[in-house]
């Protein structure tokens, strides 16, 4: 069972940068097995005409909460307190577990249609999300959200996460991590307990760190340290860790993150939208930290479109640093692809022989790509995600000519409308 | 000849804000002649089913240079000097007049497809742009770019602008303004000359002011004033003026702009991309200035998509000011619609009886609008422009079911490819 994407303009890794050129890409099973040279014994069942397509590595959304997808545009232009405690949490409290299944599918529809092939998800209803990912065909890291004080390490939640992990041990597309929520929502003893279980079970960690100024102020007052130091001291960084936000990180914090091999996910839209400002991305890169990119949940973005996020990432640091040479289009593409793969320990994120076949094909006739001139710059500065026509994940076509092959879009829309009505959201259609 | 958009979800003005609801919109000739109530003597030739559409006022791109559209993605991540003098100007020098016609059509394709119905354009080849606008059906303000030192007021360029204005005096969609480029490229005597002609001819002004720190520093050194004071002292503000950028404007500058009724166009993508930073939009609004929104040219954006620009505008000031309540979705929509109309003296920018029928219809089934929840927030935070299916300008449908009715898109693409080759641009397709 082989597929060839023939004569496509493709963006391949080229040392620390990227090079675009015409290529034939050979896919067998879940892998890229050849570029330009036909592998021995390869036989093609399908040939995709790539002549009018730009083929890129599938984008990796390194931080989101897909269960929140139906909460887009419900709580905007509000203070953080009114947003979280006044609107989002009351909605979460009314959610039924299966709502998370439909919400995750809704988020995945938007992600696939805009070229994302993999997402790192933190949420409570991991069984529902796992079910949605198994059906959609996406690659996902499913992280059980964990919140607790000093002593109440909730073994039930942990056991649930381990059970899911064991049940899907054979599914290469799914990875399970533990998701201790944040320094401000996890006591030091609780965090130490999570770190010990992660070590015992060989699991990675997905955590929010240093998202806002209040978090840093309270941490200093209550524990005499920074959020980064607090998480390090609990032993969390002894396991592979991906830390979302990291907006308030000092030079010393950045050195700690770099020394411990912690990857940081920056979420520009969410960080601005909630008034938290701009993460020091250029400074983190300079410190040697592996920085990747995420959308965060739809309640604080409100899109799940990595092209929108790449555009923001490429522009905002030029604005804050007063120079057009701060964060290049090449760096942006890396943060949205291979840096994410590195952070999550996945063999994907670039078009190379031996990597997983996670690919997005863009229509070269789209107005935003005409003329194309520089393909990497186009991804960061002129594309919006609607150019994506075909998406391949783990060697399987999940979108062909803009039609999803694994998700019944109309059904998801109907279920979401029903859920929104039950949750009392002001859905206007 | 009447058209009804039946049973559409539409965003109408509601005092200083907006209200969304189900409406029938009646169009006759170039105007909106009724909302919900059938006007006397109205007969419908066409009924558009609006039940699955969100109808919004057409977006107004209040500052661009469409002749630059083929220069997207050719000069990114460069210093301002390398960008302008090393790349853009040498390309401009090689351009032939007719290239501006095709480039303008290219920019207009991207604008129409993303819901823009009107653009304010500054350029050199105004005859070519006029020809493109007459054909496309867009509404446009065509501004002759003017650059000069102390004494060399070039009457030839002015005469050309007046000739075009007189030739198209009957075309309600076209307005002509004078476009003295910027304080740093126009001497004081030259600017005074332009102001006098504008007064004599009753023409408005479109100018760049205070885009970068170097401009302000040099102005203080050479003339002992700010760029805003310099332009005011030349008499420019005695005619209706729209000023692009206004990034370096002090409190006193803002008072001058407000007192003189100068409208400001903010261009967030371009300002960040060239390292010029963030315009003080919240402060300008507080000073009572009419602020509108533009993309700037494709050489410094690199898109001509007002949805991308609305998203940036809604987010960046929350980031710089550290509060989610800075620049609301309602304000963003105003800046992209009725503020632009006010700045340009046009009877459009809102869905009201008696206004020009400039409208964009969005697909309510698009993933980025599912669920919709809050339609105004959706425009600022989750839409990307690809949701637009139909565009009506001056009562005429210029895009129907995503197909342009006035522009031969394939022909434009071919001509642009030919031009890029001649100009030596690295066009990869």
Describe the fold and architecture.
- 2 copies of one chain form a homodimer.
- Chain A has 2 domains: 2-57 and 349-404, Urease, subunit C, domain 1 (Roll), CATH 2.30.40.10; 59-344, Metal-dependent hydrolases (TIM Barrel), CATH 3.20.20.140.
- In chain A, α3 (126-136) links the parallel β7 (116-123) and β8.
- Chain A has helices at 80-94, 97-113, 126-136, 155-167, 188-201, 213-223, 227-233, 251-259, 268-273, 281-286, 306-321, 329-336, 338-344, 375-381, 409-423, and strands at 2-14, 17-28, 31-35, 44-49, 53-57, 59-64, 116-123, 139-146, 174-180, 205-209, 241-245, 263-266, 291-293, 359-363, 388-393, 396-400, 403-404.
- Chain A has 429 residues and is α/β, with parallel strands linked by helices.
Features:
homodimer; 429 residues; alpha/beta; Urease, subunit C, domain 1; TIM Barrel; 2 domains; 9-stranded mixed sheet; 15 helices
Blueprint of the fold:
Two copies of one chain form a homodimer.
Chain A: E1 2-14, E2 17-28, E3 31-35, E4 44-49, E5 53-57, E6 59-64, H1 80-94, H2 97-113, E7 116-123, H3 126-136, E8 139-146, H4 155-167, E9 174-180, H5 188-201, E10 205-209, H6 213-223, H7 227-233, E11 241-245, H8 251-259, E12 263-266, H9 268-273, H10 281-286, E13 291-293, H11 306-321, H12 329-336, H13 338-344, E14 359-363, H14 375-381, E15 388-393, E16 396-400, E17 403-404, H15 409-423
Parallel strand pairs in A: 1-4, 1-5, 6-7, 7-8, 8-9, 10-11, 11-12, 12-13
Antiparallel strand pairs in A: 1-2, 2-3, 5-14, 14-15, 15-16, 16-17
Helix pairs in contact in A: 2-3, 2-15, 11-12, 12-14
